[in-house]
Design brief:
About 10% of the residues lie in helices and about 45% in strands. The chain is built from 1 helix and 10 strands. By secondary structure, it is mainly beta. A hairpin with a 2-residue loop joins strand 5 and strand 6. The radius of gyration is 16 Å and the shape is globular.
Length: about 170
């Protein structure tokens, strides 16, 4: 339990430092649901068509001997040198591939911002993914928990600071 509290404190501390540049005008924020919902189970690879893979991590989340794949993508393309060509607004996707199923944990446009995620196992040996979405006007944290019995993910917004104007952030 102490480990979970320490991890949550670290994540919340990181929120203070994670954001984007000063913004002006009407900013479209990432849409985040405030209720718990079951992640969409997908069967198609069309979601990642024309997207850039930012990170992939393989982990056996349910201890069945098979690794699941966690991937985060953006619509920002890479240039010929392999550098990402960020735009003011990019589509972001966080998904988990388990067996033949793909679970979309987050898909949305993030303007003047980014998304990060953390993977952890809690004291009850349950697998979790937490993602933080930051923009110039919003900081949100969403927790995703795998339900082995129903072979689903549930997602819950656990923090959402809206209508702010971030002036500085440290990388």
């Amino acid at each position: 339990m102490k480990k979970i509290i320490v991890v949550i404190n670290i994540i919340i501390s990181m929120i203070v430092f994670i954001s984007c540049s000063n913004t002006q005008g009407n900013i479209k924020q990432a849409e985040v649901s405030s209720s718990t919902e079951v992640a969409d189970k997908l069967k198609e690879a069309d979601l990642i068509k024309d997207m850039t893979l930012l990170v992939q991590h393989n982990i056996d989340m349910n201890k069945d001997g098979k690794e699941e794949k966690i991937e985060m993508y953006t619509s920002a393309p890479k240039n010929s040198d392999g550098n990402i060509m960020w735009d003011d607004m990019n589509k972001w996707l966080l998904q988990v591939t388990k067996d033949e199923n793909v679970y979309k944990l987050y898909e949305g446009d993030i303007q003047l911002g980014k998304m990060d995620f953390w993977i952890y196992i809690d004291a009850n040996d349950k697998f979790h993914i937490v993602n933080i979405i930051t923009t110039g006007t919003n900081i949100a944290m969403i927790a995703h928990k795998h339900d082995d019995a129903n072979n689903t993910f549930t997602s819950e917004e656990i923090y959402n600071l809206k209508d702010i104007n971030v002036k500085f952030y440290y990388k």
